């Protein structure tokens, strides 16, 4: 130290004497003036820079409260593929609802989101003896709700963790000295992978720990520098909320933890028609409103409240079934001629309406074009000659040969009579099921009366649209 003045003063002197611009005429006053000019120039440059930064900050704040914030980095990249990796505002639980947007690192190559926290740099755990005697809560820049939403929206989430140890085991002689707490505060003992039921590190998974009898390098409890480093991939329990270590009481012991940010990437695949608001939410819908979903057998209408998260009550509200028919089906046919054959499909000779063409009027056989519930109705007159015993005629609706409805009339008269009959049915039909009318039983020589009194109508009441969609047409 004592030498400094001796060295520096001559150098300064030399500069003063030999500086090219400082010719003989240069006074000390002029030198000060020059320095002052330079300083005020620098000041102006700085002032401009500060102004620019203030504008940038303002813009950032503005955009934080306005339209163009995506829910994840993946979606940010989707909206503008030209963006490069860096810090971005995102709002996983939805913009303008829930918690405030968060400022995260977006890797635009992978589209992954990294939520920073206050414990990313290597941290010495110091010295203490008991299990978990060192404990550090991890503070993220995002609320747990935001991170929950991010995890829900992502295919994978993970977090890297490293523990550099010197004679500082995580577990020794069946005593567990170290653990981390998951998003629910539960203790976890796996330091890599996704098996949360075991105490294990990456070397334990790979089977190459320093001491083959242990599952972690640090558990070798040797007075040498060791390290366990792994990536926890069990999305359901992340992020890590607290780190706990112990058994570092010896002066020769040391432990240093390094925890990576909470990272999420990818999109949960919904490779089918949406069947819930959650499906819609995962595929990018964020505007609350009425939506159609594919129900078990029919299309359903629901209200999706995207200001809530999928597990929160009121996220999905059922409204009702949507009456959709992929093939309109209704018919109205009549028969003018008389008919008296037993167990024979009754054909028709007049078609009033046959939307979809499912009724083959010439054979009298209706073939269900779609799986669903159908309504059928028939009415007509039966004519009977005079008789001294009871005469009757039973008309049936047959489904693939089995009677599903019966109606009829009878007569016991000394005159020729005409009696009306009517029958209805609602039936659950599979695509391809066949329906027809026939006289199932009769006594005497009664017959279905001519002159167009015989009517047969039917229509598709409710289609199992989901079934129709699964079946090839
Ligand atoms: C993005 O992620 C990839 C793959 O993990 C990595 O190689 C790359 O360095 C990351 N980019 C930035 C800017 O961090």
Automatic annotation (TrEMBL):
Subcellular location: Secreted
SUPFAM superfamilies: Fibrinogen C-terminal domain-like, TNF-like
Coiled coil (residue ranges): 29-63
Cross-referenced Pfam families: C1q (PF00386), COLFI (PF01410)
Signal peptide range: 1-25
UniProt keyword annotations, A-Z: Coiled coil, Collagen, Secreted, Signal
Main subcellular localisation: secreted
Domain C1q: 324-467
Protein name: C1q domain-containing protein
Source species of the chain: Daphnia magna
């Amino acid at each position: 130290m004592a030498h400094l003045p001796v060295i520096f003063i001559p150098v300064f002197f030399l500069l003063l004497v030999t500086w090219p611009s400082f010719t003989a005429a240069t006074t000390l006053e002029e030198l000060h003036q020059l320095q002052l000019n330079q300083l005020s120039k620098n000041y102006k440059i700085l002032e401009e820079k500060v102004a620019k930064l203030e504008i940038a900050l303002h813009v950032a704040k503005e955009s934080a409260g306005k339209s163009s914030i995506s829910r994840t980095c993946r979606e940010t990249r989707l909206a503008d593929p030209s963006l490069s990796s860096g810090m971005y505002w995102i709002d996983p639980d939805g913009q303008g609802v829930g918690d405030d947007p968060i400022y995260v690192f977006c890797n635009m190559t992978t589209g992954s989101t990294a939520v920073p926290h206050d414990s990313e740099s290597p941290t010495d755990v110091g010295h203490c003896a008991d299990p978990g005697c060192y404990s550090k809560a991890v503070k993220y820049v995002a609320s747990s709700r935001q991170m929950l939403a991010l995890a829900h929206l992502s295919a994978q989430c993970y977090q890297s963790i490293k523990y550099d140890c010197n004679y500082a085991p995580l577990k020794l002689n069946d005593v567990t000295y170290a653990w981390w707490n998951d998003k629910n505060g539960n203790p976890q003992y796996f330091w890599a992978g996704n098996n949360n039921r075991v105490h294990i590190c990456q070397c334990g998974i790979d089977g190459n720990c320093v001491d083959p009898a242990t599952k972690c390098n640090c558990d070798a409890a040797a007075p040498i520098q060791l390290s366990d480093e792994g990536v926890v991939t069990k999305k359901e329990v992340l992020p890590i909320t607290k780190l706990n270590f112990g058994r570092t009481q010896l002066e020769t012991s040391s432990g240093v933890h390094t925890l990576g940010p909470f990272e999420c990437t990818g999109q949960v695949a919904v490779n089918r028609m949406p069947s819930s608001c959650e499906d819609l939410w995962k595929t990018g819908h964020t505007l609350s409103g009425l939506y159609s979903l594919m129900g078990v057998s029919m299309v359903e209408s629901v209200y999706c409240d995207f200001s809530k998260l999928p597990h929160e009550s009121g996220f999905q509200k059922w409204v009702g079934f949507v009456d959709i028919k992929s093939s309109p089906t209704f018919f109205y046919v009549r028969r003018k001629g008389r008919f008296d054959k037993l167990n024979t499909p009754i054909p028709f000779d007049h078609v009033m309406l046959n939307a979809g063409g499912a009724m083959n009027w010439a054979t009298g056989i209706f073939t269900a074009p779609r799986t669903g519930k159908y309504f059928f109705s028939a009415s007509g007159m039966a004519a009977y000659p005079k008789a001294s015993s009871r005469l009757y005629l039973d008309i049936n609706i047959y489904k693939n040969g089995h009677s599903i409805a019966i109606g009829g009339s009878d007569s016991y008269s000394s005159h020729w009579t005409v009696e009306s009959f009517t029958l209805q049915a609602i039936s659950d039909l599979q695509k391809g099921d066949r329906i027809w009318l026939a006289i199932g039983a009769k006594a005497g020589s009664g017959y279905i009366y001519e002159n167009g009194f015989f009517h047969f109508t039917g229509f598709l009441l409710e289609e199992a649209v989901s079934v129709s969609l699964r079946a090839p047409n």
